[in-house]
Specification:
The protein is mainly alpha-helical. It has seven helices and four strands.
Length: 218
């Protein structure tokens, strides 16, 4: 009887394949993953640039202005975003995430947190590292792509509305976030997530419909 070793054959997705075939599969898988992670970085950069513009537009007298989020000021919106970023950063790099300090400059805190997330999305090992996410253990890239960027998109509008800045969001980012959230309609109506959805105007554009879905009266 001919004996087969693990060096001779491997099982991939239930199929017996020669090592050369497996190597080809792995290369294809790695290339697909690399493209997906590049998309995560590109999406994050696009959305974070909008939030960054809003943060830079906050004048010193506007930090304590009430935002569309109940009990949150402009500073609180930025603090929430920074804390979410710091949670991912700590999961990847170690340490404990710290909330925005009372004496911290929110603009500078945002810049540092955003830079760190951008660095993580550009590091294959960092972005692949599994950390605790909202729905369990996930890669940092998945958390950034599915949750951090989406959260950032919504709060870009919150901050812009608060300070009277440009409220227009990137349309493709809105479409992707909306399609991702629709199946989670019931789940996101939990306390401290999103409030009840509102009925948008008949002539609402995509962004307005998206915001009403998230309980925001645009």
């Amino acid at each position: 009887m001919q004996r087969w070793t693990l060096k001779a054959i491997v099982i991939v997705r239930g199929l017996t394949q020669h090592p050369a075939q497996v190597q080809h599969f792995r290369r294809g898988h790695e290339a697909t993953y690399a493209r997906a992670m590049t998309k995560v970085q590109d999406s994050y950069r696009l959305v974070s640039s909008g939030f960054d513009a809003a943060v830079r537009s906050v004048s010193p007298d506007k930090w304590e202005v009430q935002s569309p989020c109940e009990q949150w000021t402009a500073r609180d919106v930025v603090a929430h975003v920074v804390e979410g970023h710091r949670s991912v950063i700590a999961g990847v790099r170690g340490g404990e995430p710290e909330p925005l300090g009372a004496d911290e400059d929110p603009r500078r805190a945002w810049e540092k947190a955003s830079q760190a997330i951008d660095e993580i999305t550009g590091d294959p090992e960092a972005v692949a590292k599994e950390v605790d996410g909202p729905t369990g253990r996930m890669s940092a890239g998945e958390i950034i792509g599915q949750f951090v960027t989406m959260d950032l998109l919504v709060h870009t509008w919150d901050l812009a509305r608060t300070i009277g800045a440009d409220e227009r969001l990137d349309e493709d980012s809105v479409r992707q976030a909306y399609e991702a959230l629709k199946p989670m309609d019931a789940m996101i109506r939990q306390p401290n997530v999103f409030g009840p959805k509102l009925e948008p105007p008949i002539d609402a554009d995509l962004q307005t419909e998206f915001l009403y879905f998230l309980g925001r009266r645009a």
